[in-house]
UniProtKB/TrEMBL annotation:
It comes from the Bacteria. GO terms for molecular function: transferase activity. It holds the Pfam family Rhodanese. This is Rhodanese-related sulfurtransferase. Gene3D superfamilies: Rhodanese-like domain (3.40.250.10). SUPFAM superfamilies: Rhodanese/Cell cycle control phosphatase. The lineage of its organism: Bacteria, Bacillati, Actinomycetota, Actinomycetes, Kitasatosporales. Residues 23-113 form the Rhodanese domain. The keyword Acetylation does not apply.
Length: 122
């Protein structure tokens, strides 16, 4: 059985958290927002790769290479774009999070700033 059901391109924040939290998480939460947004607040353990860099041809950070990816942004639009781009580049399995970091925070999942303190969604 695969990590995500066949044909599923989007997941809820609960599914994203289930697949990406903890030391033995099967997938990587990839945050594609810009630096200011990331610094204000992101999910603990997320890997940062801004969409602007990916569009410009930047490689994925090592922690995200050859791993299933759960892509997140602020609201879900940029993450859809990034997921399509990464799938076209051959990512083994990639989905995006419906509602993005806004939905993540609303659901009560933790958000930390660049210093590990309580963060906010910019």
């Amino acid at each position: 059985m695969s990590l995500f059901p066949a044909g599923e391109g989007r997941v809820t924040v609960d599914e994203a958290a289930r697949h990406t939290r903890g030391a033995d998480a099967p997938a990587v939460l990839l945050d594609v927002r810009e630096q200011r947004e990331w610094d204000a607040g992101h999910a603990p353990g997320a890997v940062y790769a801004p969409l602007s860099g990916l569009v410009a041809g930047a490689a994925l950070p090592e922690a995200a290479q050859a791993r299933p990816l759960v892509v997140i942004c602020r609201s879900g639009q940029r993450s859809q774009q990034a997921a399509e781009l990464l799938a076209a580049r051959g990512a083994p399995r990639v989905v995006d999070v419906m509602g993005g970091m806004r939905a993540w925070a609303t659901a009560g999942y933790p958000v930390v700033d660049g210093h590990g303190n309580s963060g906010s969604i910019a």
